[in-house]
Amino acid sequence: MRIPATLFSLACLLVSAGCTNTQGPNGSRVYGFDNTQYFLQVDTSNVLPAKVPYAGSIIPDTTLQLTPSFGISLEKLVYWGAYAAAAYLILDPLAPNWQIEGAVFPGDHVHFSLHMKRYYAGGAGEARQVFHRRAKQIVREGGYEGYEVVEYSEGLDSSVLGSQRVAEGVIRLTKKLG
C-alpha cells in the first residue's frame, strides 16, 4: 500500500525539480522551469485566511499551464488523482490473483483451498493451473516422485460486495525418492 504514496512523492519531486519562483503581480507567486514564467501561478494572498474555519474550497483555484494553449485546473488534477488512487487500491494490480492455503493430512494427502481476488482484471480461468503448479512445487520440495489428484472442484462464493472465485482440491503424494 506504500506504492501510491511513493508515486505521489515522485510526481511532486519531478514537478518541482528545477523550479524557480518569483514574486508576481498582486502578491502572487509565479512558478516556472528555467525562468519560463506562468508555468504555475498561485495567488498566495488568500491561501491561508485569517478566519478559521474557512468557508471556501481547500484546493486553490489554480491552473497548471502545460503549453501556451493548454492548462489543467488543480481541482481536476486532484480529483483525477484521487480516482486513480482509489482504482489502484481496489484493483491492486501487483497483488497475486489467487491466495492458496494448504493443509497436510495423514497418508501423504494435501488439501488446497484457493481464493481469487474479489475484484480482478484477468486470471479468472487459471485456478486449475495454479492448483497443479502448487502441487508440483510440494512434490519438488518434499522429494516425492509425483502426485495424484484425488478431488478437485471450482465454484463461486457470493456476498454483498460481489462474487469470488474459489477452488478446492486434494492430492495424494506418491513415493519419496531415494
Account of the protein in words:
By secondary structure, the chain is α+β, with helices and mostly antiparallel strands. The protein folds into two domains: 3-91, no CATH class; 98-176. It is built from three helices and nine strands; from the N terminus they run H-E-E-E-E-E-H-E-E-H-E-E. It has helices at residues 3-16, 74-91, 127-142; strands at residues 19-23, 29-33, 40-42, 63-67, 70-73, 98-105, 109-116, 144-157, 164-176. The strands form two sheets. The chain has a five-stranded antiparallel sheet. A four-stranded antiparallel sheet has the order 6-7-9-8, with helices on one face. A hairpin with a 2-residue loop joins strand 4 and strand 5. The radius of gyration is 28 Å and the shape is elongated. The two termini are 45 Å apart.
User: What is the arithmetic mean of pLDDT?
Assistant: 77
Q: Characterize the quaternary organization of these chains.
A: single chain
List segments where confidence is low: pLDDT < 50 over at least 5 consecutive residues. 13-22, 32-39
Fraction of residues in H or I helices: 25-40%
Tell me how many strands there are: 9
Strand arrangement in the largest pleated sheet: 1-2-3-4-5
Largest sheet entry: 5 strands, antiparallel
Termini, distance in Å? 45 Å
| Range of strand content | 35-45%
Q: What pattern of helices and strands is seen along the backbone?
A: HEEEEEHEEHEE
